[in-house]
From TrEMBL:
InterPro entries: Recombinase_CS, Resolv_N, Resolvase-like_N_sf, SSR_resolvase. Pfam families: HTH_23 (PF13384), Resolvase (PF00239). The active site is at S10 (o-(5'-phospho-dna)-serine intermediate). Residues 2-136 form the Resolvase/invertase-type recombinase catalytic domain. GO terms for biological process: DNA integration. This is Resolvase. GO terms for molecular function: DNA binding; DNA strand exchange activity. The keyword Nucleotide-binding does not apply. It comes from the Bacteria. The keyword Magnesium does not apply. Keywords: DNA integration, DNA recombination, DNA-binding. Belongs to the site-specific recombinase resolvase family.
Amino acid sequence: MSRIGYARVSTIDQDLETQIAKLKAEGCGIIRSEKVSGASRDGRAELATIIDFLRPGDELVVTRLDRLGRDTRDVLNLIHECGQREAFVTVLDPHVSTRGDMGHIVLTVLGMVAQMERRFIKERQREGIEKAKGIGVYKGGKARIDHQRVAELLRANMGASEIARAVGCSRMQVYRIIQNYAQSTSRSDL
């Protein structure tokens, strides 16, 4: 029987260390982590690896339910798959496990409440943005990456990988910035 920890954050600039420390403190011998959205299971290779290798009696441990997923159906499907492999799921905050019948019920309710809460937050955010736009104060989110710096490095004949390392982002973000600049200006202006 193994305790296998799973840590996840949604973006590359978020930190996994707090989750990993909690999972180690809970005695997880194996911890898999990834930086990918929890909106769906697509692209979550580490979680898929854990599920594939679960044996009867193993326990998948996460710090919070939303680390498994943001959609109630996905979370319930994951819990069901673990159950099919005769493995358990434990959430540390609040502490709930599928080792008993009540654990399944509590996890189902928590998943539904979390999904409903996310919908309310998005709705309030959308309403706030619309109100701010109406009075002319909404300017959108701040750019996290210095687009001018990316353009300068591109003009210095640096490749996308080098630029990504220099400004602290992914290559894909560099490609998007380059594409946006190419669309808004002529290639010679870069």
